[in-house]
Q: What sequence folds into this?
């Protein structure tokens, strides 16, 4: 039960950090923030400071940052004769409207949410890598009977690229094999670049073999599964950045696979399964001690935070990426897109996302109870 509560709170904090990014930059650029909330749903308590209501709400799932005129049309904004705006008895100057700011300031405010998620993911990555280390792409065995065995690749060699993708650690290779499963079925070969034990750079090309038992394609190469520590602060920061980059890359490629039909609906996890997965992994890690459970929680939180940031940058209406898309159009054409048209498009996006969320949550619950 404790791990479940911690998992719910961790998921909520990740979303809250996203909203905090919007909040910080909105305040920095003089945008009126009507309300900043911790949690969702009914308001439990609140106080007003600096013309912003700070609220704690009943459901511990993230938070929200409501900026002036962000969701209201000009007709819905109560204005005084001097152009001032009154909301809940609080008076705001006309200059505090989100839409009154320059495109670049609005771009930064909107982009700050995903950026804060990436920053959080990086901080967590530094802690995890500092304590656990990272997995190298070092080969420990080349299995007989597989194509890689005939290419001259040997134990102690290290893969540096696969196809067009750079390889920084073992996970990059596994992601490539997953993403290109359909291509392998159509006969596409694998092209590997690797550094041999003597330091020379070599290239190998071969077709992977399908394994019915695992429903995957195999190269016949076994990689070292142990973790190695970063040798200095520079490598620690670099390896942490690589880790976040990997999670962002895997998110984008997963979306492409979903659109292409390469993964099914059961492969898409919503908030229910995400929290359940955190709970399960943290609970299992707790058997090895509190510190192990904490590192597992950080690893999963890093993954979710990077995913949330990447997903929000997709150019989909109602998401941050959709709003950034309209600001970019404004920068290109030199004038704002019709606000009513943009609002209708975002509303359609919200309805679509709500419908998708209902489907995903229902699918999550059905899978958990199978």
A:
């Amino acid at each position: 039960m404790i791990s479940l509560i911690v998992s719910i709170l961790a998921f909520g904090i990740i979303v809250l950090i996203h909203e905090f990014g919007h909040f910080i930059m909105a305040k920095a650029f003089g945008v009126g923030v009507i309300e900043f909330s911790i949690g969702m749903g009914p308001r439990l308590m609140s106080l007003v400071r600096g013309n912003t209501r700070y609220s704690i709400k009943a459901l511990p799932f993230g938070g929200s940052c409501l900026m002036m005129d962000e969701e209201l049309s000009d007709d819905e904004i109560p204005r005084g004769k001097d152009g001032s705006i009154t909301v809940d008895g609080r008076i705001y100057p006309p200059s505090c409207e989100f839409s009154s700011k320059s495109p670049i300031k609005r771009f930064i405010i909107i982009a700050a949410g995903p950026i804060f998620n990436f920053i959080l993911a990086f901080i967590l990555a530094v802690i995890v890598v500092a304590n656990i280390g990272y997995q190298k792409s070092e080969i420990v065995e080349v299995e007989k009977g597989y194509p890689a065995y005939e290419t001259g690749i040997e134990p102690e060699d290290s893969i540096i690229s696969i196809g067009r993708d750079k390889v920084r650690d073992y996970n990059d290779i596994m992601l490539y094999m997953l993403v290109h499963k359909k291509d392998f079925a159509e006969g596409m070969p694998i092209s590997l670049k690797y550094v041999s034990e003597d330091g020379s750079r070599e290239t190998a090309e071969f077709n992977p073999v399908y394994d019915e038992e695992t429903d995957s394609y195999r190269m016949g190469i076994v990689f070292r599964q142990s973790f190695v520590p970063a040798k200095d602060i520079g490598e620690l920061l670099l390896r942490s950045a690589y880790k976040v980059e990997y999670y962002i890359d895997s998110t984008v490629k997963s979306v492409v696979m979903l659109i292409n039909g390469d993964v099914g609906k059961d492969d898409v996890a919503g908030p229910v399964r995400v929290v359940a997965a955190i709970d399960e992994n943290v609970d299992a890690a707790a058997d090895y001690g509190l510190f192990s459970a904490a590192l597992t929680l950080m690893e999963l939180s890093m993954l979710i935070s990077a995913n949330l940031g990447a997903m929000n940058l997709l150019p989909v209406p109602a998401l941050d990426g959709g709003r950034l898309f309209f600001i970019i159009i404004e920068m290109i054409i030199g004038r704002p897109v019709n606000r009513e048209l943009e609002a209708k498009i975002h509303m359609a996006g919200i309805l679509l996302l709500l419908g998708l969320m209902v489907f995903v949550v229902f699918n999550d619950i059905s899978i958990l109870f199978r």
Summary: The first strand starts at residue 33 and ends at 49. The mean pLDDT is 81. The domain at 139-223 is CATH 2.30.42.10 (Pdz3 Domain). The first helix runs from residue 2 to 28.
